[in-house]
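Design request, tokens follow.
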């Protein structure tokens, strides 16, 4: 059986999120997967503390929505910063001409 290069690079790690074990398979390093899993677990705990009656599936969806909201805000901030840097660089180029 021929195993592709990408299959060789895939790593398998078991993590615990909200008191449940999950096996994550991917190309990221185990420490990265643990860090991401810990952040998801932390966010779920925060939301669960504020909403203790949520069932696990609703808690997971609310966690995903909150996380995606944070991601979009950070992505927008990054775009604004990149545009600001480009503007400054153009101004510097114009001053040097």
């Amino acid at each position: 059986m021929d195993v592709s290069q990408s299959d060789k690079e895939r790593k398998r790690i078991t993590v615990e999120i909200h008191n449940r074990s999950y096996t994550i398979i991917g190309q990221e390093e185990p420490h990265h997967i643990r860090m991401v899993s810990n952040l998801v677990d932390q966010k779920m705990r925060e939301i669960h503390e504020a909403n203790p009656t949520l069932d696990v599936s609703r808690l997971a969806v609310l966690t995903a929505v909150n996380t995606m909201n944070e991601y979009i805000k950070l992505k927008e901030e990054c775009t604004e910063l990149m545009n600001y840097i480009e503007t400054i660089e153009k101004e510097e180029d114009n001053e040097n001409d």
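Comment from the thread starter after seeing the answer: thanks! The beta strands are 11-17, 20-26.
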